[in-house]
Specification:
Layout (H helix, E strand, L loop, with lengths): L2 H22 L1 H8 L7 E8 L5 E7 L18 E6 L4 E7 L5 E4 L5 E6 L2 E6 L9 E3 L9 E5 L4 E5 L4 E8 L8 E7 L2 H4 L9 E7 L19 E5 L2 E12 L2 E9 L6 E11 L14 H13 L2 E2 L2
Antiparallel strand pairs: 1-2, 1-8, 2-3, 3-4, 4-5, 5-6, 6-7, 7-8, 9-10, 10-18, 11-12, 12-13, 13-17, 14-15, 15-16, 16-17
Length: 306
């Protein structure tokens, strides 16, 4: 056999081997690691679901789709790469959806449906392992704990040694006006040696209202006048109040999210003793600015699904 024939034979064998590898193994690696043709990364999200399960998603755009026929919806070309906490990894193409971004296997046995800050997973058209999935904000620093509740419709990050209480009820609005929510009480160590009360907290509360246009901070503070507060890209309805009694001081701030229904709000509750009522040198004044800044960080991680 000539040298040229040998080279040709080797090339043919290499091509056939590559084709065979692509046919046999490429689909597996494509599902495991994603396709090289996923396109440009346009977003990523970390979801926490009921039971502590998680989904990490990377969203990619695709090539421009041809112009659809008259009366037909455009064909999506995006792709999502998923890594699930049960050790599954897959790359799914985007499919047509009237709401949110829907991705599915060819036989529709697995569907990942991203809707706003939430996600729905269907396996053989049934919600199985991943239920109540909500996007979770990244840790800005010092907020390692995650609260997620599909039934309450929100996720939140909070500091170590804070305590979450799901059966919290705010009752200061008067009889018959209880407000349900989830309370995150401070780490007692923050108050040690200071005049700060260990019952200080941040809470996320919800009130059913007739219209989302009526969601204001006044709903959560009796007699308070609400104003508009712009914080970064988020607009709040804001109200505050102060109170005193028997040497105690009470401060409340409420940040309601206009347009939500149920109306969602974050409450800061700070309880402390009047420093002048303590014997000299017994306690120090707590760092009000530092505590408020920590509460602000917690509030900024709130992600709601409605």
């Amino acid at each position: 056999m000539s040298k040229t024939s040998t080279i040709v034979t080797v090339l043919v064998i290499a091509v056939l081997a590559f084709v065979a590898w692509e046919w046999r193994y490429a689909p597996f690696f494509s599902q495991l690691f994603g396709s090289a043709t996923t396109g440009q990364l346009v977003g990523q999200a970390h979801y926490q679901c009921n039971g502590g399960k998680t989904i990490d998603a990377k969203f990619y755009n695709g090539p421009s789709a041809p112009q659809p026929a008259p009366g037909q919806p455009p064909v999506p070309t995006g792709v999502v790469q998923l890594v699930l906490s049960d050790n599954r990894a897959m790359t799914l193409p985007q499919t047509i959806s009237a709401d949110g971004a829907r991705y599915a296997t060819k036989n529709e046995s697995f569907v990942f449906w991203s809707k706003g800050n939430g996600a729905l997973v269907l396996e053989n058209n049934v919600e199985k392992s991943f239920i109540g999935c909500i996007q979770v904000a990244s840790d800005p620093g010092g907020l390692p704990q995650v609260y997620e509740s599909g039934s309450n419709g929100f996720s939140l990050r909070y500091p170590a040694n804070y305590t979450a209480a799901e059966k919290y009820v705010y009752q200061e609005m008067g009889p018959g006006k209880d407000i349900n929510g989830v309370k995150f009480t401070i780490d007692p160590a923050i108050a040690t040696g200071t005049n700060l009360g260990t019952d200080s907290y941040v809470s996320v509360e919800q009130v059913a209202i007739a219209s989302s246009s009526k969601c204001t901070a006044s709903t959560f503070l009796d007699g308070a006048t609400a104003s508009i507060l712009n914080d970064g890209t988020t607009q709040y309805s804001y109200a505050s109040s102060t109170g005193a009694g028997a040497g105690n001081r009470y401060e409340e701030q409420v940040f309601a999210l206009p347009g939500t229904n149920p109306c969602v709000a974050v409450r800061y509750y700070i309880h402390y003793g009047a420093i002048e009522n303590y014997p000299p040198g017994v306690v120090t004044a707590f760092n009000h600015d530092a505590l408020t800044a920590q509460f602000d960080m917690i509030r900024h991680t709130l992600t709601i699904v409605q």
